[in-house]
Amino acid sequence: GMDPEGLQGGMTYTDAVTDDSRLVLRTLHEAVNAGARVANYTEVLSVEPSEGSFQVRVRDGVTGAEHSLRAAKVINATGAWADELSGGEPRVRPLRGSHLFVPAGRLPVEDCVAVVNPDDGRPVFVFPWEGVTCIGTTDLDHRQDPSCEAFATREEVDYLLGLVNREFPGARLADRDVISSMADVRPVITSGKGLDPSKERRDHAVWDDRGVITVSGGKLTTFRLIALDALEAAELLSPGSARALRRSSEPLFVSDPGIPESLESPLSPVPDDEEALRRMLGWALDHEMVVHLDDLLLRRTRLGLLRPGGAEALLELVRELVMARAGWDDARWQRERERYMNIIQHYYSLPQPPAAERAA
Question: At what angle do helices 315-325 and 274-287 cross, to 10 degrees?
Answer without folding.
Answer: 40
